[in-house]
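From the methods appendix. Each design record in this collection lists the tokenized structure first, followed by the designed amino acid sequence. Records were kept in a plain field format so they could be parsed without special tools. The example shown here is representative of the layout used throughout.

RECORD:
FOLD TOKENS (246 positions):
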């Protein structure tokens, strides 16, 4: 039985010193890793590590990189198109209320969304502060996984009702808001992630994929289910969403 870390950044330079050990620790715990390229350099490295470590991959372009010119964005676009067989989904893509120029963010998001439609892939979105907007734009086009969802419960329920996934990150370990989301959402529409090396549940330590265990344990506590049961449902949700066995 497997854990699923449906969104992390193995290609992040923060892992340059210990990437081999991080992967090994995750594999020892039977964690299925999906790494997510989020910049041109990040996508190129993620592709390389996908092959090296035999992990899973999504490729996209992070909304915080809104200042980039079209030349860079087109390079990422073509990279995704040329590697369609290597990826499970397009992402992470999206919009972030803490970044500038919402119009340009939306334009870039829509460009990658139409690529996902063309390739018949689901999308993994970063939608901080724009959960409802992203959902409205994409819901009739592709399946959506809301990475590290932090929006309100009502929107989350709508997202689930249409068969999309809410991804619960390691923030669950210390956030009352996220605990409340888990409590009130159907587990059939949840998936788990670490977003490592970010969002560490352990003070002073870098996050890593094996910590997805802590998310699963916390979901088990909240839902009064045992860990194996939670693992089984999350794995099933992941395979259904990515349209393949991981
Ligand atoms: Zn991320």
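DESIGN:
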């Amino acid at each position: 039985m497997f854990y699923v870390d449906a969104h992390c950044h193995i290609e992040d330079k923060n892992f340059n010193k210990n990437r081999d050990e991080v992967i090994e620790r995750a594999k020892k715990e039977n964690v299925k890793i999906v790494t997510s390229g989020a910049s041109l350099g990040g996508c190129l490295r993620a592709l390389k590590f996908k092959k090296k470590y035999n992990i899973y991959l999504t490729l996209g372009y992070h909304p915080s990189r809104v200042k980039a010119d079209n030349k860079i964005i087109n390079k990422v676009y073509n990279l995704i198109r040329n590697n369609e067989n290597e990826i499970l989904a397009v992402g992470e893509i999206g919009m972030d209320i803490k970044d500038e120029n919402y119009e340009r963010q939306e334009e870039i998001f829509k460009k990658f969304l139409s690529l996902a439609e063309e390739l018949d892939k689901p999308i993994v979105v970063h939608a901080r502060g724009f959960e409802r907007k992203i959902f409205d734009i994409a819901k009739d086009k592709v399946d959506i996984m809301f990475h590290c969802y932090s929006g309100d419960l009502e929107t989350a329920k709508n997202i689930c009702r249409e068969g999309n996934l809410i991804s619960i990150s390691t923030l669950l370990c210390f956030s009352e808001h996220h605990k409340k989301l888990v409590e009130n959402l159907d587990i059939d529409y949840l998936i788990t992630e670490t977003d490592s090396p970010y969002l560490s549940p352990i003070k002073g330590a870098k996050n890593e994929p094996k910590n997805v265990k802590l998310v699963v344990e916390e979901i088990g506590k909240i839902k009064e289910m045992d860990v194996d049961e939670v693992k089984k449902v999350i794995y099933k949700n992941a395979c259904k969403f990515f349209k393949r066995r991981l």
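APPENDIX NOTE: Residues 7, 9, 36, 92, 147, 195 surround zinc ion (CB under 6 Å).
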